[in-house]
Amino acid sequence: MVVPALPRPQLDRLILGVFVIEALYLLTLSALEEGLARLAPALGDAFFMGNTAPGLLLQFASFGALALWTIWVARWLQGRSAHSFIGPVRVALRQGTRVFAALLLLFLAVECLPPYWSFDTLEAVRWAWWLPLLPLSLAGLMLQTGAEELLYRGYVQSQIAARMPSAWAWMIIPNILFAIAHWSSGADLVGNIQYVIWAFFFGLAASDLTARTGTLGAAIGFHMANNAYAFLFFGELGAPDSGLALMIFESVNLGADGTGGALPGADWVLSPALTVEVFMTVLMWGVARAALRR
Fold this sequence. Notes:
This protein is mainly alpha-helical. The chain is built from 11 helices and 3 strands; from the N terminus they run ααααααβααααββα.
């Protein structure tokens, strides 16, 4: 994946490219939000929140703009094709499928271990439309995760590796950008910092899988399995990104004792919850590597 980046490895081209991609993507989202606000306000609200199936599916579809702008800018500035970011397609598909399936089995195994879920606050299990929508939900997740991997691992990582072959450079720099992209203006400071830290380690794992395999397949499978677990199985009633969840729970903040109090250390950046999330990311990375060796 680095070879196609070698003819034009200049960092100024890459910096310009990232800036243009992000600017065009934000303009596209703004235009979409403005159009929805005028033509379909309810769908616009659902698109922003992701708390209905149409809204969340449209949110996933909007990442197609990120993929298209990445491909267009890379062709303009580096003369690269979309294929050069992905690697051999058949190999990428095989690797991605293996990683995705292995990680879903890991999540199932984790759910079978204590501490167990309490179903006292379960509001609904939405099999009736969850199953028919599952192919569309997975296609949307592939578009969402594929667009992000195309930008950060396919474009940025390979261009940096062409200019600075040190692993410190092409592992760290793309994932600083990836982590910053997960900062949310609406979240509290501690929660934002925790999310950024987690995203950085998650990105490192995806970058390592990309470097080891020479395709984007494993990284997309890794990212897609994580997001499928986050979006498609559990959600809180009316909460953001709950639109495609199978099981919907009451919107409560359960504490360690199940009483609704805050978890110990919830106001610390380096909290027990963050430690568990990072450990889970490392475990996912290990399982993905094992699946790729089969």
